[in-house]
Input
Amino acid sequence: MKFFNNNIAIIGAGNLGKSIAQGFVNSNAVKGNQLIVTRRKLNLLEELSSFNINITNDNKQAVKFADIIIISVQPKQLRGVLSEIKEVLTDYKIIISTVTGVSIENIQSVIGNSKKVFRAMPNTAISIMQSMTCVCTNVKNEIDTQKVLDLFGVLGRSLLIEEQRMASATVLAASGIAFSLRYIRAVTQAGIEVGFDARDAQLIASQTVLGSAMLLLESGEHPEKEIDKVTTPLGCTIAGLNEMEHMGFSSSLIKGITTSYKKIASISKDFSDKE
Ligand SMILES: NC(=O)c1ccc[n+]([C@@H]2O[C@H](COP(=O)([O-])OP(=O)(O)OC[C@H]3O[C@@H](n4cnc5c(N)ncnc54)[C@H](OP(=O)(O)O)[C@@H]3O)[C@@H](O)[C@H]2O)c1
Output
């Protein structure tokens, strides 16, 4: 297991920021006392104190403490946070923004071009170290880039992508959690119709999705190769699968994902808005 010596600040510990902090503690890659997390409503962070994590509502104090600063506020809150911490951001610190739709160029327009800026797009499974996190940067230093990939690597899997693919990563990996969970819910409902109670149906649906994903992650095979193994000619699986396709299964997923993608384009303008 990898261990990081760096101190890490998480500015804006809401749903995602708190999940990242929990993930780090659960991974043992970072000790609680190497972490400092901030939000304005400090009382909502008290639960993190029990993990020895430092909490504060002073963003500058957090930045001074840390070598790596993860910013996880809403797009319209980012400009204010960057302006506030700018004077304590030294050039050696690594800044990672998880904020949707705000470019590295936008961020550098506030804090300057000499800073090391990364964007990361994780999902909420980061709290249990099962995130898919896409990372982009314009930092040329491979050691820094590898450090950021390793950091998110202990919290699941990480992938370096071009910045122009960040919106696509957002809908596939971050929104993707909701899409996958809705699939599991639908299968659970069907499971009840065919005789299981809700708890057993959900267990079967969830573990089956996990197993399917692991088959692909471990083999790197195309899904259809695994599907061929379970679709006996004249059998029940192919009959069900084809009925799903007649009802628009793949088409509805593709349309839903491309609709989310189009929607994301409207978010980036929020960076210029005030909260
Ligand atoms: N949720 C996801 O799955 C996910 C995945 C990938 C990316 N993202 C992106 O990550 C960002 C955070 O998402 P989220 O779902 O965690 O949002 P969220 O729950 O609204 O969290 C934002 C947090 O920022 C805090 N905050 C706002 N202004 C602050 C300031 N000046 N100083 C310190 N803290 C401040 C807020 O707390 P106070 O009001 O108490 O300050 C709040 O807890 C968003 O840009 C989102 O698009 C989210």
Notes: The first strand starts at residue 8 and ends at 11. The pocket of NAP is lined by residues 11-17, 38-41, 59, 72-75, 77, 80-81, 98-100, 121-124, 174 (CB under 6 Å). The chain has two domains: 8-161, 170-264.
